[in-house]
Amino acid sequence: MYQLLLMFVGLLFTAGVAASESAGATLDLTANWVGYAAIMVFVAAYMLVILEERIHLRKSKPVLLAAAIIWILIALAYNSHQLTHAAEEAIRHNFLEYAELFFFLLVAMTYINAMIERGVFDALRHWLVERGFSYRALFWITGFLAFFISPVADNLTTALIMCAVIMAVGEGKPEFIALGCINIVVGANAGGAFSPFGDITTLMVWQKGILQFGTFFKLFVPAVVNFLVPAAIMHFALPAGSPPPRHMEGDRVLKRGGLVIVGLFLATIVTAVSFHNFLHLPPVYGMMAGLALVKFYSYYLGRLEHQEIESMDVPPGSHERPSFDIFDHIAQAEWDTLFFFYGVIMAVGGLGFIGYLSLASGYIYGELGATVANTLVGVMSAIVDNIPVMFAVLTMNPDMSELQWLLVTLTAGVGGSLLSIGSAAGVALMGQARGYYTFFGHLKWTPAIALGYAASIYVHFLVNG
Q1: Rg of the chain's alpha carbons, rounded to an integer?
Q2: What is the DSSP string of 170-182?
Q3: Which residues contact 249 (CB under 8 A, 6 or more apart)?
Q4: Which residues have CB under 8 Å from 412's CB, separation 6+?
Q5: Residue 194: is its pLDDT beyond 50?
Q6: pLDDT (0 to 100) of residue 338
Q7: What single DSSP character describes residue 423?
Q8: Closest Cα to residue 343, out of 4, 5, 67, 99?
Q9: Quick check: pTM over 0.85?
Q10: Alpha helices of 199-320 — where are they, by DSSP H?
Q11: How far apart, in Å, are the Cα atoms of 446 and each of 229, 234, 263, 296, 415?
């Protein structure tokens, strides 16, 4: 029983700090008061995250504080042993991991905000409504779009786009928005599981050279099952009827540059993929290059507007700023989500540096076996983000067959759908659809999602075994 408890604690609190060996001598603090205190701090912070909608405390605040306390405890322990540089190198490694994620998300959010302001999703809403689609048809359309776009655009970006559509189409129907967001999260995570570019975890496995590019597509059928099972169950809880027509001419017209920004966003995705695939550079550098493109286009739109104002003889000073300013859309990014990721990565990274990874690695794969361990990895990724969990598995580097590596890739990718906080897509949508898509609203449908999770594992062995 004690070993099983250690296994769960190890998986729950391991993260991407395998660099501890490079930091010189390290301390095993798993049985020290520092380790126990760090675990209690992290658990307390995550309880506050879960209770966000009840206590109205933004989720980033407790994890930011938890990350600071955990690394203070680690620093005190290492300084008392005159190992002043080990903790410093480890925390810098974690911060670099976060910086790449931060700028990737910031660019994606900026593009989404720009497309919303230009009326792209309002136009899509009208296109869907005018064709008389019912709420149930819209549920399936957005779900399938999330599933098939996420292998290219990554599951987070896809979820943000589809959520904007759901919010626009489902105005006045909170139950539809909630179910639509859950369906999008499940679909985007499932779609991202069979492509190296669909999820950060699949990208990590591919970068490590464990699986070849084409091998990931063996997970297509299990991923489809993972999406279809909960979607079919939720279908019966959807409201009947169709969205009411709205004859608002202003909403029908795309603002200048809307489609160009969509094109720039697609070009940014291609650039990010190409940076990784051909130049062997982190995808975030391609995303930042794409941010430069939309910045230049923002300047161009501003110049056009300025010329129009001058031609209309508008008094000087009446239009000091252009209506489209890219920095406004950067400022409108979901900062609570971005800081939440910082807190999670740094806090979990600190717990990994304490020593829980080495404590758990031998038992979970040696005693439980690869199938049970990889299934539990998916469950753990629903509690702690799948990125640190997958990094922990890659650091352990257990001796597994291709079938088992595909399994852990699948479970880490789709297991995060079990809870709203288990994936980047879920966390982002809690911010974007605040008040509609919540932790407890998602938890209500966790049994249906878990059924799809189990079915996808069974189908994986059936198809690929």
Answers
A1: 23
A2: TTT-HHHHHHHHH
A3: none
A4: 201, 377, 378, 381, 386, 389, 390, 393
A5: yes
A6: 83
A7: S
A8: 67
A9: no
A10: 200-207, 220-235, 249-252, 258-277, 283-311
A11: 12, 11, 36, 44, 11
